[in-house]
What we know:
By secondary structure, the chain is an alpha/beta fold. The protein has helices spanning 48-55, 78-81, 99-107, 116-122, 138-150, 168-183, 195-200, 219-224, 240-247, 267-279, 293-301; strands at 10-19, 22-32, 36-41, 63-68, 84-87, 156-160, 187-192, 204-209, 212-217, 230-233, 251-253, 258-261, 286-289.
Amino acid sequence: GAGGLGIPAVEVDAFTKRYSGRTAVGDLTFSVEHGEIFALVGPNGAGKTTTLETVQGYRRPDSGSVRVLGCDPRRAGRRIRAQIGVMPQGAGLYAGIRPAEAVRLFASYYAAPEEPLALLERAGIDPSSKTPWRRMSGGQQQRLSLALALVGRPDVLILDEPTSGLDVQARAAAWDLIRESRDRGAAVLVTTHLLEEAERHPDRIGIISRGRLVASGSPAEVAAAATRRLEFTARPGLPVDRISASAGSPVTEGPPGRYSVAAEPDAHLVARLTQALADLGVLVSELRTSGSLEDVFNEVADR
């Protein structure tokens, strides 16, 4: 593929898309290399699906450019299309088709596909299942859609919320399959709104909020950019004004029983805080410094 030329597999440069005056995606720039999983992370309505549909060639950028394997995806010929595996959100198949028929049909489009029935099994579907698409549960349809995206051993995988509606075990199995594609050298562009997934599986992430990229890097790098705070869990309804005065920093109660100290954590702050709580006879059940992906997400999503 184009990987040998040092060109990113997916290149999104200053991509902007508007719908009736509203900016759905604004000035978005990122790239996905061969052999890596890049996740666009953001709440529903952040612009993730619009971006993926443009990368697939279904939408035209209003400004900026989107390239896949060095080509404009809207003009990509069959050679390029055969190198791309796609899993759209809510993929629809012919209502009467059965899993084995579907995966064999898709395999027939490619020169060197995966073994269809073995892939079905690894995706968690019984290859001998006679259940047609329309009668499959949402979770089973998700698994089949993922198998169809993977069957051609694509160079580029574009997956929109691939684990949505799956239980924990099925989610883990799906990520195993996705990682195998990456390890084989595929570039994987995936969206998710599940932060625990974004923290664990991708090599790099981009957090998207209101159509703009607000943070990007490895999950650890992005988490490290969070404003660090001291947080503790104790019984609800503590006198936060008194604790704030003793600790020397503002203490607030978020959800009942969860408290946050708005200051850069250090040993002295921890000592003052625990002394203030001891004076009140309060036992802390958990004390931690925050700085997780969730913290970044909440900070940037408010902007």
